[in-house]
Amino acid sequence: KIKKQQVLEILESLGLLLDTHKSSAELVRIKGNKVTLRSEGQCADCDTNCIEQAFREKMPLAEISFDNQIQ
Which of 5, 12, 36, 41 makes an SS bond possible with 28, Cβ 3.0 to 4.6 Å? Predict the structure, then answer.
């Protein structure tokens, strides 16, 4: 089971990268091994998938998806 603290630590580790690209990412929800994130800025439409890559490296069992709808 994926823990919220693990997800938040990964997002925090991406802070400098996200800041450099004038972007942000936040946790929306965790359900089992599915993690839903919201990203804004340049990184929301980027093809390099840096956010997903960071999660794959540190949480290989996590299924990452994005919900970029404005709430």
Answer: 36
Is a pLDDT exceeding 90 seen at residue 43? no
Tokens 């994130």 belong to which residue?
37
Q: What values do phi and psi take at 43, rounded to 5?
A: -70, -20
For residue 58, is pLDDT > 90?
Answer: yes
Model pTM score: 0.88
**CB 43, CB 21: distance < 8 Å:** yes
Sign, Cα dihedral of 59, 30, 5, 2:
negative
The three state secondary structure string of the chain is CCCHHHHHHHHHHCHHHHHHCCCEEEEEEEECCEEEEEEECHHHHCCCCHHHHHHHHHCCCCEEEECCCCC
